[in-house]
Amino acid sequence: MYELFTVATVIIIIALLWLLVRAFRAVAAAQKTDWGKTWLNYIDGLNVANHLSGLDGLLVIAATRRPLRFLIAREDYERFGLTWLFRATGSIPVDRSRHPEIALRAALRALEAGEVIALFPQGRMILPGETRKLKRGAFWLAQKTNTPIYPAFMSGIAGVGHIFRGILWRSHAKLVSYPPLDWRNENNAEYLQTLFDGKMGVGKE
User: Fold this and answer.
1) Which of 42, 55, 163, 203 could disulfide-pair with 178, CB 3.0 to 4.6 Å?
2) Are 47 and 70 in a shared domain?
């Protein structure tokens, strides 16, 4: 009786392992985009997006399968009642007035460790009709780590220019993703500038 129980247990374990392997292979086959990983369906690298309101980060998180570490202006990072949240999610404060390179080095270490960084190259929230020259931090990080840049463009957000209004006011928000950019292509910096200036065609929602 004991031997029959042992044999049955072994058969069940083998069957479960077989089903698990089949499931992993099915996921890999269904994933049309090759992110460079055999089993895992996720994006590596740098996520960049335009910056409109306090809702932006939540939209990017919702659209991304992996945990993100955001680069956040120190004055926002230290807002009363929010520091604990930013710290818990691994966000990196950026001291824009004195030593922004400290945050970039922290982001570099995170990328080298296999984490995903998200940032807003415009540097601050942009009002409707406003344009702003993009900061080069994303391309610097991409070059140092040979990492692709995944751009996204958001629109339809209420409370533009405000942290809490963007979160609390009802929006018809839309996030559109675009193909990854290779930092080695010199034209991609101009492409990203055109995209975030709102002059680009529609990508993939």
Assistant:
1) 203
2) yes
